[in-house]
Design brief:
alpha+beta, Multidrug efflux transporter AcrB transmembrane fold, 63% helix, Mycobact_MmpL, cell membrane, five-stranded antiparallel beta sheet, four-stranded antiparallel beta sheet, 736 residues, transmembrane, 11 strands, elongated, Alpha-Beta Plaits, 3 domains
Amino acid sequence: MASLLYRLGRFSFRRRRLVLSLWLAALAAVVAGFSLAGSSLDDQFSIPGSQSQQALDRLRAVEPAAGGVSGQIVFTAPPGHKVTERRYAAAIQETLHDAAHAPQVGAVISPKKAGTVTRDGRTALAQVQYAVTGPDVRPGSVDALEASTRPASDAGLTVHAGGAVFGSHGVQIGATEVIGVVVALVVLVITFGSLLAAGMPLLTAIGGLAVSLSGLMLLAHVFTISSTAITLAVMLGLAVGIDYTLFILSRHRTQLARGTDVEESAARALGTAGSAVAFAGLTVVVALAGLSVVGIPFLTVMGLSGAVTVVVAVLAATTLLPALLGFAGSRLTPKPHSRAARREKSPRPAMGARWIRATTRRPLLTVLAGVAALVVVAIPARELQLALPDNGSAPQGSTQREAYDAVSRAFGPGFNGPLLILADTSNAKGGGKGAKAELSKAASDLKKLPGVAAVTPPQPTSSKTDSVLQLVPTTAPDAKGTEDLVHRVRDYADGVRARSGVSLAVTGTTAVNVDVSSKLSASLVPFAAVVVGLCLIILLIVFRSIVVPVKATAGFLLSVAASFGAVVAVFQWGWLSDLIGVTRTGPVVSFLPVILMAVLFGLAMDYEVFVVAGIHEEYAHGRDPREAIRRGAPGAFRVVTAAALIMIAVFAGFVTLDDAIVKPIAFALAFGVLVDAFVVRLTLVPAVLSLVGRAGWWLPKWLARILPAVDIEGRGLPALPETAEGHRPHEESRGR
């Protein structure tokens, strides 16, 4: 790999105009295609083949209007008044008339017909049924629904439109990325001491992100891609794009400071640090693609979207960056006698050397303290609750959040996510009379189940053999009580089918979300096993050691557990929630665990390689194990620190979003990188290797013979001629 990337780096440097032209052409093509075609994102989460999805598909087939997405209009009269007063009733009727004529609306059910007027008469709830599913709702249709509320609001009523039709918030891109980029620029300027050098990673990362993001928007016309997948891709594209170029550029600057020819330095930087970048990118791609083992289509697409972004970031770092280095030439060389030049020439940076000495002076104490701290942070993870967010998690002040809160106060939280029960009587015992009697009994029995607020009478569909009942829970759509109720209803349905032949299937948006969450929870352990297995195998091949992969895997699991604990403490318990703008505590998004494990796995392996590679090389050259750590680890300290701070800044920028899906994922990733880089890789890894000594590099001879040889350190590259100072520049820069 090192030799191939060495040649690629030299080619890109020499043919820099061609390489830059190809990147600009690719960018122009995808941007033009996106500009002409636009985007077509789908924020519906479902599992094909689940009971709820099968029933929903059947309902849409026999009663298209009933299978469409729904909306709500909530009317609240001023204190001391009722919505049934003549002027208010007339305004409500005008609003419902306008709503019924809004684009794509199939039907509007008035509060009087639905029986959704509170006992005190102050609040009324109207249901809006669309003739299309959520992804097919045009933005203008939602705007028209909001505009239809004007007659009621002009009459003095407080009116809010909400419901599932407001579930998609779209791709939120803007100020959050600016925050991450600004912080990244500051870190890069401090790291390199040069604006030109600091701009290289940003330019490369943003260029690669523009290509991948526009390409994904085009692919959304062919594949089902959600706005969350795009946001995740943006996070990853910025973070890894900057980090990967940082690693290569740091090696290039070090070599330039030590007298290496510019072209040779660019090629050699790609053959050494670029090999580690390619390896790190491969691990992230494999982990993200591994989301497909969960068996949930939207999660598979989410993982593949992130993987595409990472692949483009690696391509940009290994082709576009060397071309830009060619344009920059010797201007990236630190000025003689400058602080940057002294820092680059130092084989062991002072800060890194002091930190490594501190962690290895009493390695056992360091390991015990570090592990204990992570275990304490991870303790809340035992109470991790998963669900898909609803409008109760929408930004405060938004119309859907106001409608959700108004419905919860007036009618109860369950009215925000009623369950639909599709009854199939085609195999009913006793014919039509028996079916009718069984449905009446079912409606009566369901009302008596714990957690049920109301059940509507069976409503026949156009198929004549199917009927629909609506069941309102006493708990919110994302509450554990609602999930338990779904399972109780299904248990009851099994008994009904056995005694009468009538089939009852629980469906609707709430039931679909419950099934998605259950599937994700069940798949967490198998996915974790796949990721841990990959971690062991990859590091075993790279470092040809038993201890290194086991240590790295244990550290990764500690980082993940600590991140889960922090998420529970902030998003479920409410600790420091005001600081990051968490307006409602409760279950976190169901796919956070698998996304966190997939992304953090790749980043953890990235940092592991950069820290351990220098140690391994020093040990291979005959150093004592402790001396190898003290000479090999400090070189990676500055680069890993800068890379981790940039990652944290990018992810933390997305924590500011008012999005119940993106906010906890971004927080978990930022916290995970913080813990994994600074506690695990830069503290525990040197301490553990210091403890185990030579045993850290032991490998059975039979295993050594069958493992493939992988060179990510540049050992197979041709040696450099000695400089005037009598040393080979690249040899002193190894491990950095």
